[in-house]
Amino acid sequence: MDIEKPPHDGIDGSKMKKSFSALLRKEDCALLVIDVQEKLVRVIEEAGRSIENIIRLIRFSKIVDIPIVLTEQQNLGDTVKEIRSEISIFQPVSKITFSCFASEKFCTHLRPLKKKP
Q: Taking residues 34-62, what's their average pLDDT?
């Protein structure tokens, strides 16, 4: 059963109408936790709040069985302990490129999940 959202203004000013079911399907999803590392978190405003929200997403993903992929930028330290403790069974995908999708290792890790881009 689709639950309809009220019409809203689109980017081009037109009225748009979408159903919630058309927005997101579990089969098409994966949670990407990208570079939440000690050296980077230090410079994020409200980092604690961001980490809490990431943990909520991780817990939800586990409940509904959505795959989780964790990345770490080389030379920036480990993923923060709060997140590591939530996903201790996951090995991070280490990368040297800023963009995950420019990392062959990341793309190779993502391919078997068969998710739509």
A: 93
